[in-house]
Amino acid sequence: MTNFLAVERALRAAAPHALIEAARSALATHFGAHAVELLMADYSLATLHPVTAVPRTAEGLSVHTTVAGRAFCSQVPCQEDAGPGMVVLHLPVSVRGDRFGILSVSLPGELATPETRNDLAEIAGLLGHEVLVAQRDTDIYLQARRVSRLTLAAEMQWQLLPARACSRTEYSIGAQLEPAYAIHGDNFDWASTAENLTLTITNGMGEGIQAALLTNLAVNALRNARRAGVGIADQAALADQALYAAHRGEAYVSTLLLSFELATGRVQVVDAGSPHLWRQRDKVVERIPFEAQFPLGMFDQSEYALQEFRVLPGDRLVFVSDGVYAASSPGGEPYEEHALVRAITSAGLLPAADVPAAVLRALGDYRDRDADDDALVVCLDWHGRGALSTA
Q1: Which terminus of the chain has a lower count of CB atoms within 10 Å, N or C?
Q2: pLDDT tens-digit profile of 268-303?
Q3: DSSP letter string over 108-119?
């Protein structure tokens, strides 16, 4: 524990850009590490890249074919041999379910005791929290995530997002956007209290920077209303007014807003546009339709009505944008006709954080050409707070 606390102090005292250098020095001194590397997952969650100086020349590691990738995908520490008498421990760097990357630590095999592995796994988690805070003051961790340059619209969208995964006792969420380096209008947002989870799926019309600006206004208008303490129907109405005032109905945002009551699984919904919801319950996958209302900003002074349904422990909810369900096969069949159900079913054993990428990979194999629209998938696994009635 003394060694752990010494590393913790070193990380907390380090300058934002110098976390990995502080980790190398502290882990060498207190744990006998010979080498330490922080690998960040890229925006597509396909490769892991070391945090190094710009320009970056090191090759990325596949999350699908490497031991480090296996640790990242499983969120379980993995070990591999690294020459005579040496091992490398690959330790997930995550914060509340949001996966940042991997901390790889090389050390003599005799030092890799169960106690040391546990300490290093906790240090990797601590490093995740420090990286999250450090990103406010330095770009090096965000730069390490990029295999190519982001478009300006994509830069705006990624900075607008809350995270790509989140876990609490009652639920787990995972989300992904594609094309990761050139997204423009699709977005998601969530926030929780002790009693409620609010989730929004948004799709700003248009392309490029104009779509990103439109979505940015919508998401911030919704957040502003949410933080004022009003319900989702009023959140939608206030965001609608903000968008209409700015664009006079010439630009609008399709939005699905949901408020989950954590104690009961009761859900309030406002369907203001194109995002769709699919539910997997007891191996049955079906779309949950709602009464469609006007997208935000289409008309002046729109009023929005609430609908309700209930989620049960074990339910999986999958939200998709029109770039997913309306994509076509070479034969012209929409993805949601049959293939989306197959993709959701095939991902049934995956954790929520991995489902969006699996559905998007299946979409990439299905459609007849490269994406010409954003594709957004959000997965929510509902655990609940104990047994609920099916009523």
Answers
A1: C
A2: 999 999 899 999 999 899 999 999 999 999 999 999
A3: EGGG--HHHHHH
CB under 8 Å to 300, separation ≥6 — which residues? 241, 244, 249
The single residue listed with the structure tokens 């001194």 is 29
Which pair of tokens denotes residue 128? 């995740």
Of 111, 101, 113, 107, the residue nearest 19 (C-alpha): 101
Q: Look at the alpha carbons of 60, 62, 65, 69 in this order and tell me if their dihedral is positive or negative.
A: positive
If we measure between CA atoms, which residue out of 250, 252, 231 comes closest to residue 294? 252
* pLDDT at site 55: 58
Judge whether 78 and 68 are in contact, CB under 8 Å: yes
The tokens 């979505």 sit on which residue?
Answer: 215
Q: Are 253 and 205 in contact (CB under 8 A)?
A: yes
Classify residue 325 by its DSSP letter: H
DSSP 231-291: -HHHHHHHHHHHHHHHHTTSS-EEEEEEEEETTT-EEEEEEESS-EEEEEETTEEEE----
**pLDDT at position 239:** 98
Q: CB–CB of 388/264 below 8 Å?
A: yes
pTM for the model stands at 0.93
Residue closest to 73 by CA, chosen among 382, 375, 350:
350
Task: Name the residue type at position 304.
Answer: Y
